[in-house]
Design the sequence.
């Protein structure tokens, strides 16, 4: 699953057809460069250069080329329509125009993604000739394909062991130092992860890998990533209804995303020290499963009363965050498909950002906006902090109130991050409910490109 073959991109120009990219303000000048018959044909079709407008140019021998309108859109996504709308089996070469080649290649690859593990497509691929200038597009596309593959894989084939081992394999691919913790060591070092996974026959694990860029030194920034890897979530004893379980294979989307981000960092050889931790568990029901009203002692020594076994993601993360805090990272980022409340507040396309450092929050927000990988900041509102008080433990894992669920979850996690550490928590959906250009239905790598851009911007590489 680590080997993403981007066979939608080719190096040979054989039989490649010209692909023209136009915007409304340059349309007239571009039409003037075409043969009179082609220009008249496109005018007859009413070509305006609007976003998503696509026309194939005919000729006596078949197809002379194609033209894609972008409107004012500067994102990669209009290019994502090309693999499904151009004739199957054709190869295309981008022509000069007012667009980013890197965005074009990335968008094309995002639209060409298929999850074919169980059902192979019979349609021939549409291919794009690799342009000379495409920056990190292929590296980022491969990471996104990996994340989508992970999220789309059903839970019977991707359990805690498989996810933990894949994370370890990813680290080893880049010569990172890898540790996989399970059994008694997990009970000791990550007791909340162990508690969440205790109800499943597929035992929990935590994979950690440590990597250093070739130009990094002991003084280089330490970037710490933590991911929620709940491979399937029944809700535990607070059982989800059947409809609520249908997409729970995606509950490891946070772990998939931090692995994708780590891959991008390592592939780019950023001059950082990187530590990545993923907590890999299955939240099931059995005689050994944690119960409502149980009290768990966390890695930090703080005690948590279990108010709801379906609020397990924050339990998976809290020990990871405490472990990361012990190393005093420059920036600590966690990603998780944590709360339905974040989806109610912001919808599926906008992950929620919680951050204890305004400079980092601004850098992440702006970078995500700039690369069209958006999120939105919500507050760590101190006024709600006592909502997770418990009469018998240091805290409860849920609030008794029905409001501000995603904020309460963020406040819970904040208690396990040292106050002097810059920390960003991303509460994401990690899924496309429907197919759109560049965003096929299924698993999605939300905020990953934006976080990568923010690290570059904020750490000034």
Sequence:
């Amino acid at each position: 699953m680590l080997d993403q073959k981007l066979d939608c991109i080719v190096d040979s120009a054989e039989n490649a057809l010209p692909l023209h990219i136009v915007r409304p303000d340059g349309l007239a000048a571009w039409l003037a460069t075409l043969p009179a018959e082609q220009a008249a044909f496109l005018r007859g079709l009413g070509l305006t250069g609007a976003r998503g407008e696509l026309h194939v140019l005919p000729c006596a021998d078949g197809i002379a080329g194609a033209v894609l309108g972008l409107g004012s859109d500067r994102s990669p996504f209009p290019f994502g329509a090309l693999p499904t709308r151009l004739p199957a089996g054709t190869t295309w070469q981008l022509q000069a125009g007012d667009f980013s080649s890197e965005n074009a290649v990335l968008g094309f690859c995002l639209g060409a993604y298929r999850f074919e593990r169980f059902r192979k497509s019979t349609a021939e691929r549409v291919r794009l000739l690799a342009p000379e200038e495409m920056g990190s597009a292929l590296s980022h596309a491969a990471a996104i394909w990996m994340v989508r593959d992970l999220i789309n894989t059903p839970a019977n084939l991707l359990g805690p062991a498989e996810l933990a081992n894949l994370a370890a394999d990813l680290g080893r691919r880049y010569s990172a130092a890898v540790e996989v913790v399970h059994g008694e060591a997990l009970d000791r070092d990550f007791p909340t992860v162990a508690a969440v996974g205790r109800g499943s026959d597929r035992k929990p694990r935590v994979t950690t890998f440590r990597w250093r860029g070739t130009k990094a030194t002991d003084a280089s920034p330490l970037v710490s990533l933590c991911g929620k890897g709940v491979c399937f979530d029944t809700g535990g004893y607070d059982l989800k209804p059947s409809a609520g379980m249908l997409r729970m294979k995606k509950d490891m989307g946070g772990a998939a995303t931090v692995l994708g981000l780590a891959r991008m960092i390592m592939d780019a050889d950023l001059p950082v020290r990187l530590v990545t931790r993923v907590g890999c568990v299955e939240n099931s029901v059995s005689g050994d499963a944690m119960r409502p009203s149980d009290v768990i002692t966390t890695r930090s020594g703080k005690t948590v009363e279990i108010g709801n076994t379906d609020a397990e993601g924050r339990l998976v993360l809290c020990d990871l965050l405490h472990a990361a805090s012990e190393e005093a990272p420059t920036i600590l980022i966690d990603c998780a498909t944590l709360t339905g409340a974040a989806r109610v507040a912001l919808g599926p396309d906008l992950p929620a950002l919680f951050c204890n450092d305004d400079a980092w929050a601004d850098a992440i927000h702006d970078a995500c906006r700039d690369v069209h990988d958006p999120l939105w900041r919500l507050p760590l509102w101190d006024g709600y902090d006592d909502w997770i008080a418990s009469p018998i433990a240091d805290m409860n894992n849920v609030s008794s109130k029905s409001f501000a669920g995603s904020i309460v979850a963020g406040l819970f996690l904040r208690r396990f991050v040292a106050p002097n550490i810059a920390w960003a928590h991303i509460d994401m959906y990690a899924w496309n409910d429907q197919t759109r250009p560049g965003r096929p239905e299924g698993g999605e790598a939300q905020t990953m490109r934006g976080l990568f851009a923010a690290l570059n911007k904020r750490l000034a590489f």
Notes: The chain has a mean pLDDT of 97.
